[in-house]
């Protein structure tokens, strides 16, 4: 299946990038995975490109496994579980992550430009794209390329709209995000944040969310 083939190529591309960058973190380019994997370990998956070699477990261990010890995980499986008192013993918060990752892997490389156009052309919904400037796995340039390929009639108006800089009130003079908006389409660039915007820059994420909820932009 072509989609599966492309999904595997996405994974193999990560191995190449890790090899060339000493295991840079795809979620934040100013961090490193700390995986300890070496170039020799990457060679094996790359050499098997085009075979039935399954890289899912490796990608899962790098991208999702670290969050199994996240404070949110401890909160949901501890105090929240006890407070609710109705969660079966065989059900844990995050226990489905591996299956979800595997089932959705074929969706990773599917284009969604037609979906974005459909939302703007056929509904009154607000379409929001937000992007952490340090994200590599869903990089800003890629998101901007998607916008450039959209056929929504409002795109020229969006392109001609002003890109506004918003500063961090707790850090005078420091830009925390940019926003560019036209009608019901809005694009936010969050500075000093990677893929996990709320985790990397929680105060900026909160202020961005408030702007979205109250339709400020």
UniProtKB/TrEMBL annotation:
Entries under InterPro entries matching the protein: AB_hydrolase_fold, Peptidase_S10
GO terms (BP aspect): proteolysis
Alphabetized Gene3D superfamilies for the sequence: alpha/beta hydrolase
Pfam families: Peptidase_S10 (PF00450)
Molecular function in Gene Ontology: serine-type carboxypeptidase activity
Family the UniProt entry places it in: Belongs to the peptidase S10 family.
Name by which UniProt lists this protein: Serine carboxypeptidase
